[in-house]
Design a protein that fits this description.
This is PepSY domain-containing protein. It holds the Pfam family PepSY_2. Keywords: Signal. The chain is built from three helices and four strands; from the N terminus they run H-H-H-E-E-E-E. It is an alpha+beta fold. The protein folds into two domains: 33 residues; 59 residues, Nuclear Transport Factor 2, Chain: A (Roll). The chain has a four-stranded antiparallel β-sheet, with helices on one face. A hairpin with a 2-residue loop joins strand 1 and strand 2.
Length: 93
């Protein structure tokens, strides 16, 4: 086998190794999480909805649950779809 063929085989093997390592680095849980809007975006949507102060914020089963107060210091509970950012439920006291 000539030197050039060995270098090509080594190069192909190296590329395959890097591609395999990259595929293993991201787990199915990471892939699912990447499809969700991040906390910063959920926070911005909450502020656009009228929340001026956030008391608690949690991602639970694909729903951002955000609790806080509006400008008149009334409590607001907001639920956002973590994939689309759409409002699922909003309750004001």
């Amino acid at each position: 086998m000539c030197k050039t063929s060995r270098l090509k085989q080594f190069g192909i093997a190296a590329i395959a190794l890097v591609m395999g390592a990259t595929a293993l680095a991201s787990s199915p849980a990471d892939a699912k999480r990447q499809r969700y809007i991040d906390a910063y975006t959920a926070r911005e949507i909450a502020f656009d909805t009228g929340i001026v102060e956030i008391r608690e914020m949690e991602l639970d089963d694909g729903i951002w649950e955000i609790e806080g107060w509006d400008a008149r210091h009334r409590e607001i509970e907001l639920e956002l779809d973590a994939r689309s950012g759409g409002i699922v439920k909003i309750e004001r006291d």
